[in-house]
Amino acid sequence: MQLRLPRLRRSGAEWSQLRDVETLPRRRLTLVLGLAVGLATLPLVLLYLLLVLSSFADHMLSGPDIFTARYSLDNWRLLLEGRLEPAAGRLYTARDLAAIVLNTFIVALGVTAVVVAASVMAGYAFSRMRFPGRRRLMELIILLHAFPGVALIIAVYAIYVWSLGAVPRDAVTGYRFLYTILARAALEIPMSIWLMKGFFDKIPWEVEWSALVDGASRLRAFWQIVLPQVKPGIAALSIFAFLAGWEDLIYVHVFLYTGGIKTLATFIEEVVGNIETAYLPVAAAAGTLYLLPTIVFFIITQRLLLEAASGGVKG
Predict the structure, then answer these.
(1) Per-residue pLDDT at 107
(2) If I label 224, which of 13, 98, 131, 167 is the partner at 20 to 30 A Cα–Cα?
(3) Do 309 and 198 touch, CB atoms closer than 8 A?
(4) 71, β-bridge pairs
(5) Rounded to the nearest 10 degrees, what angle do helices 280-309 and 231-247 cross at?
(6) Coil/strand/helix, residue 204
(7) What is the rounded CA–CA span in Å between residue 224 and residue 118?
């Protein structure tokens, strides 16, 4: 004889309360973490807000005076006209400023391309292939990341001076860009390789093996099966590499600025170089211009970055 237990019938409100009880601790934790992160980042957000507002004000803002300042587009007009203060003449033309922005993009995008290409291929090799000395090589790579770029600048500059003699005179400018990009990217590649290796390790080998069994080549399986699943990692890698190239000052100053080639970093350094005579609202406008591409780049890759933070590799 089969015993039948009575079915418990609950109304929709009761089931909703049960679900709320299960999710309540998680919601509270999310709320607490959100408030903590918000409070921790509030000073930084306020500083950036003051910088942006100062780029439209008649003086540098420091807090309560944001309500009494006079706002206009004069600072941006002075910046785009190449006048670094109201009483100064035209120091730069619009073409000069466009060239400065273009130079910054060349360095940032070049560093991004080199870092992503080298790290993706090396990370895949360390994740999927077994070869003699693999472990020692991985330890050496992470050890290289411990060396700061400033400590290596003398050796990097010595190699640059030694190699410059073999470069034709009409190709010196291109070589300066190439050398700056490779030198700056070399500082980011060690940690980037470990980052990409972690993403490739999360992909089950069976996913790739099934493509090989179906007749796909190793290159095709990598390109069409494996690579799309590590897009969050590539997005995270891209934004870190882009920021490294965009905000770099030391390497672009040593290899580009000495040759008369300016980026936004060296341009802003020049603007605020003499703090006694610099017109800081124009410097604030230049700083805001300096921030805009990084903000846009982050917004574009934000969804993939969130997937990377939550381990977004799907088998």
Answers:
(1) 94
(2) 131
(3) no
(4) 57
(5) 160
(6) coil
(7) 18
260 Rama class: left (phi>0) / alpha (psi -120 to 50) / beta: left
> Hey, which residues does 57 pair with through a beta bridge?
71
- 107-135 pLDDT tens trace: 999 999 999 999 999 888 888 888 788 88
- The span from the first CA to the last CA of the chain, in angstroms, equals 47
Q: Does the structure show a pLDDT above 70 at 1?
A: no
- pLDDT tens-digit series, residues 153-173: 888 888 888 888 888 888 888
Amino acid, res. 4: R
Which of the 8 DSSP states describes residue 272?
Answer: T
Q: Tokens standing for 169?
A: 């005179």
Residue type, 101: V
Both tokens assigned to 82: 């190449």
Dist. CA 236–CA 137, nearest whole Å: 24
For residue 57, which phi and psi values (nearest 5 degrees)? -95, 170
The pTM of the full predicted model, rounded to 2 decimals, is 0.77
Q: Write out the two tokens for 68.
A: 């009494």
Length of the chain: 315
